[in-house]
Amino acid sequence: MPVTERFRVRAADGAEYEVICVESEIDTSTLAEGRSSVPGLPHYRLADGSSSVNIIDKDTFKIVATGKRVHRIR
Fold this sequence. Notes:
Elements: E1 3-11, E2 16-27, E3 37-46, E4 52-57, E5 60-63, E6 69-72
Antiparallel strand pairs: 1-2, 1-6, 2-3, 3-4, 4-5, 5-6
């Protein structure tokens, strides 16, 4: 799964994390001529692989393993 986005986030306690977004490919080769795949749903996770990350809005996320809310660093 290719990484489609990479960014830093910060928690209220000052801890910073790197988040990546990956998108799976859905095979469509048996459906029609042309493209043989389409992008799937995005999945966010910590770059170190320790936890999935749920998106709350475009700049706010929740780390699943800890329940910690983090915000995108701009």
